[in-house]
Amino acid sequence: MIIRGLYKLKDAFFDDYPDPYLKSNKNENRPCYFCFSEESTGLLWMIPLSTQVDKYGRIIKSRLEKNKPCDILHIAKLDDGKESVFLIQDMFPTVDSYILDEYTVNGNILRVTSDALADAIERKAKTVLILIRKGVRFIHTQPDVLAIEADLLAKRNY
Questions:
Q1: Which one, 59, 62, 132, 137, has the greatest CB density within 10 A?
Q2: Range of 22's domain?
Q3: For residue 78, what pLDDT is reported?
């Protein structure tokens, strides 16, 4: 598995963690998730991607106009030439046994090959994670990632 890659998850993850606010798995094919590893826990954090650039662009613009930081979303062009939105606000932890496969487009593996882009997303995600651990809720549909994290860590320690 390549950290900072794009992946599909097994339905088993969503069966084991049926949080209603997790982005639903559509036949183990969508959405795809950007993956980064958290050194302190060893867990993998998955950030869902969306193609709804206009919708999330408006949210980013609104937050910036109100002088609010916008670490919760990031719009970027991927190697396939299309813009996607990294939904950092909806990230969640997992372990590699729930990873189904690398995400492909027309049979080609899609990755974040820009170190600058991967660093920017990971930096925002770590900032958001610190705030989540302090009890900050960014949206009312935010998954309970701390409960998922606690369960994954407890299972790992058996």
A1: 132
A2: 6-156
A3: 87
